[in-house]
Design a protein that fits this description.
single chain, D-Maltodextrin-Binding Protein, domain 2, globular, 17% strand, 2 domains, alpha/beta
């Protein structure tokens, strides 16, 4: 069974893994941006208005435990009840778009990995800057966009069953998935289900070549449509491991001492951002601003890193208990439809 010291080991493993999303530590953007100012509370008038609204709705593609825990802490601090809806990015944004176009906006905040929804329809999201959210002063300039910002980053990983594999037996590099000894024994998350999985596929094909995809296609792997179901099946012993995946999907199982652990993969080390924005015309705009500014506070950053191993853009060295990330390969989200079809075909998952 996986003990708590195993989770510590995985945090140490992450320190040895090279990774960074979106080049946020580029020399030009680091500098004074990394000097950490003290938390800045929102004005009392905004806090009062937010409490009068009394509620908040978050649409997110992240792990449920993260949203639930953060919203509960926010409610405890301010007395504002938070709710959330969790779907993969595609279905989530489809629901949001339908509601927005119908003039029936439900979401106050939207958080997904891909920047495309924010950039394709910028009018749907309110301006965010250091005047709107004072605690963004902690964030590097390269992480800030006019209507959204990068909040956390994740190293694309592999989840394995600790009763079926020892740590020294687990693949460490993506190329190792093509080893014939794994044929018919592992679970692959369909890269077509979300932009960050597709971003992983795009990166490994660019780094390892189409021949790697063709070798994987002969491995007789099984397919899952989500990292959450993949983690459950691996913990149940149905498969040796699941990849690609993210740590958040296994964190609750690890906390319950289920036989599952995370291996951060390399060559290439692929990292995915998580972006977040306030919805323009949201039902509870003051509560949204208050929550977002609190999310950037020291209290919330440390809590975020306690919920599950993750990396925060303002904490590249992991000083708040986060997973350090350095020099990784940022995934791309602007993958053409033609390239998507080509890669899916070569991998053997074309629909």
């Amino acid at each position: 069974m996986l003990q708590s010291k195993s989770l510590d080991r995985h945090r140490v493993t992450a320190r040895a893994v090279v990774g960074l999303a979106l080049g946020l530590l580029a020399a030009g953007g680091a500098g004074s941006a990394w000097a950490q100012p003290a938390d800045v509370e929102q004005p009392e008038a905004l806090i009062k208005a937010a409490k009068a609204e009394g509620k908040l709705m978050l649409y997110s593609s992240s792990d449920e435990s993260q949203s639930r825990t953060l919203l509960a802490a926010f409610e405890k601090k301010y007395g504002i009840k938070g709710s959330f809806i969790r779907f993969p990015t595609g279905p989530l944004m489809q629901r949001f778009s339908t509601e927005y176009d119908a003039g029936k906006v439900q979401a106050d905040i939207v958080s997904v990995s891909s920047p495309i929804p924010y950039e394709a329809r910028p009018e749907r999201f309110a301006a965010v800057n250091r005047q709107v959210l004072p605690n963004l002063a902690k964030w590097p300039a390269d992480a800030l966009k006019p209507n959204y910002f990068t909040w956390t980053t994740e190293i694309v990983a592999l989840a394995y069953n600790t009763e079926l594999l020892r740590p020294d037996q687990v693949p460490k590099k993506w190329i190792e998935l093509a080893d014939p000894k794994w044929k018919g024994k592992f679970l692959m998350t369909d890269p077509q289900v979300a932009d960050n999985y597709l971003g992983w596929l795009d990166m490994v094909e660019r780094e390892l070549g189409v021949g790697f995809l063709r070798k994987l296609a002969t491995q007789d792997y099984k397919i899952t449509q989500s990292g959450a179901s993949g983690a459950q099946m691996v913990a149940a012993g149905a498969h040796l491991f699941n990849a690609p995946t993210f740590t958040a999907f296994s964190s609750q199982l690890i906390a319950k001492k289920a036989p599952i652990a995370i291996q951060y993969m390399s060559e290439p080390t692929v990292v995915s951002p998580r972006n977040i924005a306030i919805v323009a015309g949201s039902p509870n705009p003051n509560a949204a601003r208050l929550y977002m500014n609190w999310l950037l506070s020291e209290e919330a950053m440390r809590l975020t890193c306690q919920i599950s191993p993750t990396s925060i853009v303002a904490d590249p060295e992991g000083k708040r208990g986060c997973v350090p990330v350095r020099d990784g390969k940022p995934m791309r989200f602007d993958v053409s439809e033609e390239r998507r079809r080509m890669m899916a075909k070569e991998l053997g998952v074309a629909r």
